[in-house]
Amino acid sequence: QVQLVESGGDLVQAGGSLRLSCAASGNTAGIIYMAWYRQAPGKQRELVAAITSGGPTNYADSVKGRFTISRDNAKSTVYLQMNSLKPEDTAVYYCQVTTYRVYWGQGTQVTISS
To answer: Please, what is the end-to-end C-alpha distance for the chain in angstroms?
Structure first.
């Protein structure tokens, strides 16, 4: 089992920055993939960014150049640095971790005011 604790969500103005964190605990040795998803009201959950254990990353087109995903394997933590935030980035952001199964965090609210 893996437990996930997210933090960093907040209310900020457009153009601002936030850093989300997701700390994994439990059976973290088998983590091969860590990702951030988001879900805005009335919309489907979508992939924002992902990073494998080897380091390669993947981003949604809408966040390329503005968001950066990184991970600290020693701390079993994944981060999402979000810059130049836009109102359309408003959503609940979820951490996802994959071992032999998929785990989800509880979500953290990000609200961007115009």
So the answer is: 40
Determine the length of the chain. 114
Instruction: Let me know the angle formed at the C-alpha of 24 by 21 and 28, rounded to the nearest 5 degrees.
Output: 145
Q: What is the token pair recorded at 12?
A: 């900020």
Q: What residues form DSSP beta bridges with 47?
A: 37
Chain segment 55-64, per-residue pLDDT in tens: 889 999 999 9
> In 10 A of CB 6, how many CB atoms?
21
As a whole number of angstroms, the distance between CA 18 and CA 29 comes to: 28
pLDDT tens digits, residue range 5-16? 999 999 999 999
pLDDT tens digit string along 30-66? 899 999 999 999 999 999 999 998 788 999 999 999 9
DSSP labels for 40-102? -TTS--EEEEEEETT--EEE-TTTTTTEEEEEETTTTEEEEEE-S--GGG-EEEEEEEESSSE
